[in-house]
Amino acid sequence: MMMEKMMARSVRLLFAAAGMGAAALPALAQDAPMQRVEITGSSIKRATAETASPVTVINSDELLRSGKATVAEYLQTLTVDGAGSLPTSFGSGFAAGSTAISLRGLGATSTLVLLNGRRMAPYARADDGQKSFTDLSTVPMQIVERIEILKDGASSLYGADAIAGVVNIILRKDFTGLQVRGETGWSRYDDAKQNKASITYGQGDLDEDKYNWVVNAEYSQSDELAASSRKNRDWIGHGDIRPWGYGLPTQYASGYISNGAASPSPTGSLLNPATGQYVSLPGCANFSQATQGDPRGGCVWHQDQFRSMQPEIESLNLYTRGTWQINPNLQAYTELGYSERRSSFTMTPGSTSGTIIFPGANNVPQLINYGSLINMDATHPQNPYGKDVRLRYSMFDVGPSVRNAKNTFNRFVVGLKGNNAGWDWETGYTHSESKLDLAWTNMINMKVLNDALSNPASSLFPYYIGAQAGKNSPALYAALTRTATSHSTTKLDIVDFKATRELPFALPGGNVGLAIGGEHRQEKLNNPSFGGSEDGSINSSYTAAFGDSKVSAVYIEALAPILKSVEVTGALRYDHYDKFNSTTPKLGIKWTPVKTFALRGTYTEGFRAPSAAENNTRSQATGSASVQDPVRCPTNAAGVPTPIAGASQGDCSISISSIKIGNPDLKPEESKGYTLGLVWDPFDGTSLAVDGFKIKRENEINPVSYAEAATRPGAVRNDNNLKDAAGNVIPNSGTLLVVQGAYRNSSFTEVSGVDVEIKQRLRLGEYGKATIGLTWTHIASFLRAESDTLRYQFAGTHGNCDTSNCMGTPKNKLNLTASWDIGAWNFSGTANWRDSMKNIRYEGAPCASQFADGTVAPNGCKLASFTTVDLSTRWNVSKQLTMFASVANVFDKVAPLDPLTYGGMSFNPLDNSGAVGRYFKFGAQYKFF
Fold first, then answer.
1. What does the pLDDT read at residue 48?
2. Within a 10 A sphere around the Cβ of 881, how many other Cβ atoms?
3. Cα-Cα-Cα-Cα dihedral of 59, 60, 61, 63, to 10°?
């Protein structure tokens, strides 16, 4: 990533400005106007882009040169992005079809994303059923002017809920001419194809014509990438990882039989009442693609037989802005935006034995364990036992479920800005709305299924399974399956005002700058669950969130150059919510003892009220993640999880469900953030920025952790209880199914670390010019405290696996960039590196994965580091025509095998380019006038 720091120029401008007294300013304004800019995080315009707050600026050239397909894809390569980020490939998550960034790993809900400095309506389905966030896929990429990332939080201007920081995406406002751009991409396997086209038209010059109007349309399309398409790329996309030393019961495996239990299989497995063991029906070879079978006779299959690795996507983005200079002191503008994105992600077929959760009376969760409820009747033709028996059946005959999402987003802004009586002011009204239509195909009507298997009096009985499914009638399948749908909306309305000026008195370093502002916003969320999930009649648990909130806020900000070399900024914001109030300060200081060196630091406080998904009793969600079962797989004296007699290795990392319910007694989250750093230009063309950071978020709103909930007596288990050495049943020792994870205020999360940015510019004479840059983020600590005694340290580990997609928290991430301009050509390269991680869920925990022989995995319980290199080139053929090409993952590095994450099938979502493989792009841009 190339960082737009401009440190040398900024520090010199600051030094010059600091040396000017009040008497000199009018002459300066008359004879030599100084260009002042507004930087994200402050309302006060200033002559320098370097403020007390660390801000990273990414220009459009860097963005387009990267070869990334979307704004989200680019931002997720940055070192400041962490756990809780939502990649496009995470099609099995709550918010499938969306994308988001998570600054500092504190989650998308603590990262405020703005478009042209204003909020957008959040995605209409909360991530993990809890976290409200802005969907980055609604932002058109080709018309982005720059992206500013404020890395210390912003309590004054944008909102106290920007606890981890702000991402402000700024679109072009002054384009003139007609420009078209097109590009296409494909992997080395000639799949995962992407196509994009855009057209931008603008006319009018504000100075001469007193208006400017720009319109942009962008269309993109990406092919689905099936997991099975990477079956020859080592372990990538494989559900079966036994060839690499792992055991049979891994998270993407099914159909196997264990002691007194079985997972769903395509032939069906029946529980022999005489032995208490499951027996597989015949015909496995007709269904399973597994090359190794099950020693106990199960019909083993793996999810890569069906699942997507990346979804099929089709999107359209439209954006227009009009600006009118009414008179020298008054300007009017309006923005219109529309986005439509359709995605399709293929999952696995449904089964007869799911555990479904839904709200009952007074919203108390109800649970149906269909694995115990649905039996095969004694008279069923495929039942050889003459008694009602349990079965475990994966319904291949029905086919996989396809998760279709259509997300439409619209945004309207109208505003005025001007200058009166020495004040620069701006006011506006914003309305934005997100609509999400979900349609999941081949969902199972569980009541019909029960009748078809268990009720001889039903006209649908018998439902033939496995090898005999061809005997079933179309009418049976019509009754048995349905497409589950939901329609969700979020709406956001904002009225805002801000004004700034220099006060008519000076401090020793110059005039004081002042800004005031306020806003009122109203947000409405209506996210009903799928039809049929409200009573457990389909094979999907209930997930819904409802509510609305109103927030009024005012703020004041001051910039005080108290000495020629010292600049102090202070801000205070007051927010009034429906049930809560907050007053949050922000303080910053910058000392520039010499022209080429400055020290800076900030202190900020944050405040986030509980969301509708968290505090409304009508809101409920059921998530899933893997956990070590403390009963069936305790940790032995050597610190290795070891299954007890009768259990299996699968109990050591078993995927379970967790019920999360809105809690009206929640308190708001509060945070304190600190940064301390320096900017230094030690040599001509060299820029260095080092910033330490620490954020502590208290009264944190979290569900009870999976690890803690698994130890509680209320955990729901199957009835396949184990027996001790004497043959006595061990109570409550069956397979773990569901835990209670209601929202609560935890103690705190504290993350600290260091950001380093280095940039070297080289003048090469007749060989052009070059730039080399390095960006490094180090996470020193990521501590989550549930209570005074229960704490989890995630830095350098694979945790927090309760969050989004279990991508982990590497201690170090680094981007190394180089760019060379010579004549009409540009050549660029980027190396992306992430550190290795311990394959444990938190520091001090046992290894989360084991090989089949019981030893810790992988690589002595460590996920290897990963590095990729991307190259790109651009050729300005003429003033009108530009051609460009890029190669991602030039050396075709394969992502390390990750057996724990559920965000990618046997690879970590952080390493997605290593799963897709070397990727080529080619395109052209033509400007007609």
1. 52
2. 12
3. 90
576/584 Cα distance (integer angstroms):
12
In angstroms, rounded to a whole number, what is the distance separating the alpha carbons of residues 579 and 576?
Answer: 8
Which single residue is written with the structure tokens 């115990």? 372
Burial 563-586 (b: 16+ CB within 10 A, else e): ebbbbbbbbbbebebeeeebebeb
As a whole number of angstroms, the distance between CA 164 and CA 104 comes to 6
Pairing of strands 791-793, 825-834: unpaired
Check if the beta carbon of residue 613 is closer than 8 Å to that of residue 703: no
Q: SS3 of 468, please?
A: helix
For residue 434, list its beta bridge partners.
Answer: 409, 490
Asked if 300 contacts 289 with a C-beta cutoff of 8 angstroms, the reply is no
Contacts of 361 (CB under 8 A, 6+ apart): none
Each residue's pLDDT tens digit, 278-288: 999 999 999 99
Separation between Cα atoms, residue 206 and residue 397, nearest integer Å: 64
Residues constituting the chain: 929
Q: Are 758 and 816 in contact (CB under 8 A)?
A: no
**Residue type at 719 in one-letter notation:** D
d(CA 40, CA 53): 9
Q: If you average pLDDT over every residue of the chain, what do you get? A: 90
In eight-state DSSP terms, residue 100 is B
> Beta 881-888 vs 919-927: how paired, if at all?
antiparallel
Q: Report how far residue 914's alpha carbon sits from residue 909's, in angstroms, rounded to the nearest whole number.
A: 10
- Three-state SS for 300-317 is CEEHHHCCEEECEEEEEE
Cα separation values, 275 from 279, 372, 541, 644, Å: 10, 17, 33, 21
Angstrom distance (rounded) from CA 79 to CA 68: 16
The C-alpha atoms of residue 85 and residue 813 are separated, in whole angstroms, by 15
Alpha-carbon Rg of the chain, whole angstroms?
29
- Look-up of token digits 């669950």: 529
Read off the amino acid at residue 852.
Answer: A
Cβ(910)–Cβ(810) below 8 Å: yes
Ranges under pLDDT 70 in the chain: 1-50, 154
Handedness of CA 262, 264, 269, 270 (dihedral sign): positive
Which DSSP state fits 787? Answer: S
Residues 6+ away with beta carbon under 8 Å from 588:
51, 52, 53, 568, 569, 570, 600, 601, 602, 603
Cα–Cα distance list, 613 to 85, 528, 544 (Å): 19, 11, 8
The vertex-798 CA angle with 795 and 801, nearest 5°, equals 110
Dig out the tokens for 569 from the structure.
């900024």
**Which residues are bridge partners to 220 per DSSP?**
196, 315
How far is it, in rounded angstroms, from Cα 780 to Cα 796?
9
What is the spatial distance between Cα 279 and Cα 261, in angstroms, rounded to a whole number? 10
Residue given tokens 């806003």 in the structure block: 519
Alpha helices by DSSP H, 803-919? 912-916
Report how far apart, in Å, the C-alpha atoms of 561 and of each of 62, 372, 405, 505 are. 33, 72, 52, 11
Task: Determine contact, residues 269/280, Cβ cutoff 8 Å.
Answer: yes
Number of CB atoms found within 10 A of residue 636's CB: 12
Could you tell me the pTM of the whole model?
Answer: 0.90
Tokens for 275?
Answer: 């032995």
Instruction: Say which residue the tokens 């569980």 belong to.
Output: 446
CB contact at 8 A, 141 and 197: no
- Gap between the Cα atoms of 860 and 865, Å rounded: 14
Cα–Cα distances in angstroms (integers) from residue 692 to residues 6, 592, 752, in the given order: 20, 18, 8
Which residues lie below 8 Å from residue 457, measured CB to CB, with a gap of 6+? none
Q: Which residue in this structure is represented by tokens 């083993």? A: 300
Burial 17-51 (b: 16+ CB within 10 A, else e): bbebeeeebeeeeeeeeeeeebbbbbbbbbbbbbb
Bridge partners, residue 516, by sequence: 499, 556
As a whole number of angstroms, the distance between CA 243 and CA 240 comes to 8
Reading the block at residue 706, the tokens are 């999976």
